[in-house]
Write a structure and sequence with these properties.
The complex is a heterodimer of chains A (about 280) and B (about 300). With about 280 residues, chain A is mainly α. Chain A has 13 helices and no strands. Chain B starts with a helix and ends with a helix. Chain B is mainly alpha-helical. Helix content of chain B is about 75%, strand content about 0%. Classes of the chains: A mainly alpha (about 280), B mainly alpha (about 300).
């Protein structure tokens, strides 16, 4: 009996501790979201307080108007366009390359695999200046090309690797029997492998979408027309007091800007977690 | 047999296309083109420019090793930025990995609420790289911001404390990175699940305490995962850009000037001429440093990572 109660106490302590820790973790985000509903002149004086004493939507109405003649509607559409197309390119190209590296025998495969892994060590920050100069040669500065086209060429080793691991878990007998039935390698990929790797593609899509959505650096380097700004860049400029924005509307637009990623995360939480786990362990 | 017969009847090009070695190259083609176009050529180009004086407006001018010599002998900001970045990486990364491990150990429980907890602890990592979080962080650590408002209810002295002054400013960024321990935590959680139960049962039979079990079973079996997280997070912290650029932009007195931000400011100065050649040299030095650190980490691997 006493053992039972001590176990119960332990469970309660566990939940209280973990829930409290969780609250601390998301407190900043809660604060941002809830403060965006406070009247803008109340945000700083009541910054220690989470729940607004007085609720208002003014910040959203004012913030949405944007600046320099463009509403946040424009910026959100830009971000959706860039993130969707770049993600589509990433999925298609990474799946192709992953199939080749996991299932086909050909010359130079080892070298290619090493290069794919090395792209994971060569993140955007190191390539920032080299790529900028190259895109300048190509006359790509001021267009969306640098933010979209490279992703159609499987340049992010992370996704190739994630999909490779997934293909590795599909029994080879399937390929073999497809071959015996007269299926070409191309047919095998499109008819057998592609339908089976949908879960890995979903995980990749989520990561890719969120990363592209948050990509501030590329927008900073390559976008110079106001109507082409994605949310990340627009928000940064908007948060600057010189744009005429107030703290309330800045918080409101900041909150809106993380809504897509948060919703995607909440819906696909499980496949995200699995994606991280599988690439992580094998890395 | 039958497939071979069909293949032989096809046109030579068709037959060639159907060969496994060809198919392999065809499927890899996106990466081959992408690697050349978006990595190899830019890197080659920047290697060339790193030996040049280049302001973008006028043609590059070959100056040999001058940029590198200047960086190492006559650039105090370079050594400052490198120091700040190393401090951030060496303090922030272990803290982040330790946090991730502790939380993973706590969450490695059977309970219906675990999914929810996991999501809550992981959420900051998902959106941590966004501009919104950078804006939020400035608000939280302002002298009349949220953190001081909460802290001063317990420690009245904290009211109006300036987090963005020279000492604590770097900690604003360290706390931000530690806050995003989520993905390391998930990796720990999944490898914790893979530790065979029998090992714990055997330890139980031997009368080992929970604490003892942790040191003799859990921790050794986790060392490969700890290693992986350390490598990944160290590289990430050497390359942190957006958040430091937006939150502190190096201020005050370069005490939070990250290497990548310094490099950016050289290439795209807010006033004066761009120094693309110099920035290219900085990029190459960074690449060498990150590779060296990675090699160093791999070299220590033998000494403490348990390969079962």
């Amino acid at each position: 009996m006493s053992r039972m109660t001590s176990k119960k106490i332990k469970t309660v302590v566990f939940h209280v501790l973990v829930a409290f820790g969780g609250l601390i973790m998301i407190y900043p985000l809660l604060w941002m979201a809830l403060s965006s509903f406070k009247p803008t002149d109340q945000v700083l004086p009541t910054s220690g307080q989470l729940i607004p004493a007085q609720w208002t939507l003014d910040n959203y109405v004012n913030g949405w108007k944007g600046f320099m003649g463009y509403t946040f509607g424009t910026f959100f559409l830009n971000s959706f366009f860039i993130s969707f197309t770049a993600t589509f390119g990433t999925l298609v190209s990474s799946a192709f390359v992953a199939f080749a590296l996991q299932r086909l025998k050909f010359k130079g495969k080892k070298l290619l695999f090493t290069l794919v892994l090395s792209t994971m060590m060569l993140p955007a920050q190191i390539l920032m200046i080299p790529q900028f100069m190259w895109y300048r040669h190509l006359n790509w500065v001021g267009t969306y090309y640098p933010m979209i086209l490279p992703y159609f060429f499987a340049i992010q080793g992370f996704f190739v690797y994630l999909i490779m691991n997934f293909i590795g878990g599909i029994p080879k007998d399937l390929d073999e029997s497809a071959k015996i039935d007269g299926c070409t390698y191309y047919g095998t990929f499109f008819r057998i492998i592609l339908p089976l790797i949908v879960p890995a593609l979903v995980t990749s899509a989520i990561f890719s979408f969120i990363w592209r959505w948050d990509d501030y650096l590329s927008a900073l380097l390559y976008v110079n027309r106001a109507n082409m700004r994605p949310v990340a860049l627009a928000l940064q400029l908007f948060s600057d007091p010189s744009s005429g924005s107030d703290i309330g509307s800045t918080l409101a637009m900041s909150t809106l800007s993380i809504v897509p990623a948060t919703i995607i995360f909440l819906i696909f939480q499980k496949s995200l977690v699995e994606g991280i786990a599988t690439t992580g362990i094998k890395g | 047999m039958s497939t071979k017969a069909i293949k032989r009847e096809r046109a030579p090009f068709q037959a060639w296309l159907q060969k496994e070695s060809t198919a392999g190259l065809v499927f890899s083609l996106p990466f081959i083109v992408g690697f050349l176009m978006f990595m190899a050529i830019p890197m080659g180009l920047s290697l060339y420019y790193s030996f040049c004086k280049y302001d973008i407006q006028t043609a590059p001018q070959w100056i040999g090793l001058d940029n590198y010599v200047k960086i190492f002998t006559n650039d105090k900001i370079f050594s400052k930025a490198l120091g700040v970045t190393c401090y951030f990486a060496l303090v922030g990364t272990p803290l982040k990995v330790i946090f991730a491990l502790i939380v993973a150990l706590i969450l490695n429980h059977k309970s219906k609420a675990i999914g929810l907890y996991r999501a809550v602890y992981y959420l900051p990592s998902i959106i941590g790289g966004s501009v919104a979080v950078a804006i939020l962080w400035r608000r939280i650590f302002e002298s009349n911001g949220t953190l001081n408002a909460i802290l001063s209810t317990v420690f009245p002295g904290m009211a109006g404390y300036n987090w963005f002054s020279e000492g604590p400013a770097i900690w604003v960024l360290i706390i931000l990175t530690v806050w995003q321990f989520g993905s390391s935590m998930l990796i720990f959680l999944s490898s914790l699940k893979q530790i065979p139960r029998e090992l714990y049962e055997a330890a139980d039979v031997d009368g080992a305490t929970k604490f003892h079990q942790f040191w003799t079973v859990t921790l050794p079996l986790l060392t490969p995962t700890i290693f992986f997280n350390l490598v990944q997070q160290t590289i990430n912290s050497f390359l942190a850009f957006t958040q430091s650029k937006l939150i502190t932009n190096g201020a005050p007195r370069n005490s939070t000037l990250f290497y990548t931000v310094y490099q950016y400011n050289k290439a795209f100065p807010s006033a004066g001429k761009s120094q693309m050649g110099y920035a290219s040299a900085l990029a190459w030095i960074m690449l060498l440093i990150v590779s060296l650190v990675t090699i160093l980490l791999f070299w220590t691997r033998k000494k403490w990572v348990y390969d079962g």
